[in-house]
């Protein structure tokens, strides 16, 4: 349901969480898994930009514990009103511009949403938290969800990113997320706001917007279109199944120590080209084409994007050691589940591949020539 929002003067908490960006890829998976695993109500604040899709949450739309509010995280008045009305015990902050390629074309949007939006949320959370009673202040949490890209890039033999790895962002997206991480840290150390931060590796799974690598390759392979692979295809990422990530966030929210950062990874480093060839083989297996060439033949190497980080890898030993979380899904099985989901959900795919999406794909790839 949609909510009416207004301010009220309260100093206690409800058993409710406020999720920002809960209609996006990771956010919607988090809301869905939260509703299955937890009893607390959810207020979902999302602007429903190109990457946010209310249809992701149709299955819980009529649940009395779920409330949707459409709005911008840069709107301080709206955030203050939501906090005043619903009195959540936690804010889980997913809302972000997150596509590196888009940040290269239009960096301003990333600074606005990722830096100024996070600042606005932190300011409103600080005001709300300061007015809570003692028990409420002790119980409240602000969980800031971030990325491994803030750490920069690794050589093949380098140790994986840990929570103490110096920041070295290399794209406008990564820099904007690094800025938001620093703000979150500062609000804990300066004001005492009970902030938790998670930095995750590359997520994959259902509901991911199809401009990202895995869904783009699944859908292009299904339709017999070229599979554009940047550079030599040897850029390495650590892949994390989205439901494992959601479980980690629930664990950090439940038991994490305020002021701490927890890296969340899938222990699944793969070169991009290996991910793409595995997808080709899975689509061939699940949707065979009589007499057609293997879909690996569709792979096309294209000009690399500027500043393309060579390797990311996450050391998630801290969250395992301190909170007992570790990924449950093996990459090959998770990827098979993901391919099958996209093949089985053509209606969802068609609904999100709007003219805006097609225009972006054309803009980003049309000028790239084969490498």
Task: Give average pLDDT, whole number.
Answer: 92
Number of strands: 12
- Helical fraction equals 40-55%
The largest β sheet comes out as:
7 strands, parallel
CATH architecture of one domain: 3-Layer(aba) Sandwich
**What is the first-to-last residue Cα distance?**
49 Å
Spatial order of the strands forming the largest sheet: 3-2-1-4-5-6-10
CATH class of one domain: Alpha Beta
Q: Report the order of strands and helices.
A: EHEEHEHHHEHEEHEEHEEHEHHHH
Which structural class matches the secondary elements? alpha/beta
Shape: globular
Features of the shown structure:
12 strands; Rossmann fold; seven-stranded parallel beta sheet; alpha/beta; 371 residues; disordered N terminus
Entry summary:
The chain is α/β, with parallel strands linked by helices and 371 residues long.
Description:
This protein has a domain at 16-206 and 240-267 and 307-330: NAD(P)-binding Rossmann-like Domain (Rossmann fold). The protein has helices at residues 25-37, 76-86, 100-105, 107-130, 134-139, 172-191, 213-223, 242-255, 272-286, 317-323, 331-344, 346-352, 355-365; strands at 16-20, 41-46, 66-70, 90-93, 141-147, 195-200, 202-204, 227-230, 236-241, 261-264, 269-271, 299-302. The strands form 3 sheets. It has a 7-stranded parallel sheet, sandwiched between helices. It has a 3-stranded mixed sheet with strand order 7-9-11. Strands 8-12 form a two-stranded parallel ribbon. It is an alpha/beta fold and 371 residues long. α2 runs parallel beside α4. It contains 13 helices and 12 strands.
């Amino acid at each position: 349901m949609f909510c009416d929002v207004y301010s009220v003067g309260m100093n206690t908490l409800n058993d409710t969480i406020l999720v920002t960006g809960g209609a996006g890829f990771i956010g919607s998976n988090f809301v869905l898994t939260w509703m299955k695993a937890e009893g607390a109500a959810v207020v979902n604040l999302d602007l429903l930009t190109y990457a946010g899709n209310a249809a992701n949450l149709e299955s819980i739309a009529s649940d009395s514990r779920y409330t949707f509010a459409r709005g911008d995280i840069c709107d301080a008045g709206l955030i203050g009103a939501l906090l005043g009305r619903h009195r959540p015990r936690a804010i889980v902050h997913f809302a972000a511009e997150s596509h590196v390629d888009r940040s290269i074309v239009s960096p301003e949007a990333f600074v606005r949403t990722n830096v100024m939006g996070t600042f606005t949320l932190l300011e409103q959370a600080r005001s709300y938290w300061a007015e809570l009673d003692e028990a409420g202040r002790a119980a409240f949490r602000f969980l800031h969800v971030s990325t491994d890209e803030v750490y920069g890039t690794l050589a093949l033999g380098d140790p994986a990113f840990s929570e103490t790895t110096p920041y070295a962002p290399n794209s406008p997206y990564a820099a904007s997320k690094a800025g938001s991480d620093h703000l979150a840290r500062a609000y804990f150390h300066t004001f005492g706001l009970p902030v938790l931060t998670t930095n995750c590796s590359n997520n994959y799974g259902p509901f991911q917007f199809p401009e990202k690598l895995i869904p783009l390759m699944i859908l292009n392979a299904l339709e017999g279109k070229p599979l554009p692979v940047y550079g030599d295809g040897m850029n390495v990422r650590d892949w994390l199944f989205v439901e494992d990530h959601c479980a980690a966030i629930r664990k950090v929210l439940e038991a994490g120590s305020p002021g701490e950062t927890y890296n969340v990874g899938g222990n699944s480093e793969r070169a991009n080209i290996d991910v793409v060839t595995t997808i080709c083989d899975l689509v061939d297996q699940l949707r065979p084409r009589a007499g057609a060439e293997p879909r690996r033949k569709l792979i096309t190497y294209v000009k690399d994007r500027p500043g393309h980080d060579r390797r990311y890898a996450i050391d998630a030993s801290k969250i395992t050691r301190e909170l007992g979380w570790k990924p449950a899904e093996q990459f090959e099985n998770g990827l098979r589940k993901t391919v099958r989901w996209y093949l089985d959900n053509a209606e969802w795919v068609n609904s999100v591949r709007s003219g805006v999406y097609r225009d972006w794909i054309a803009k980003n790839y049309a000028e790239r020539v084969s490498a």
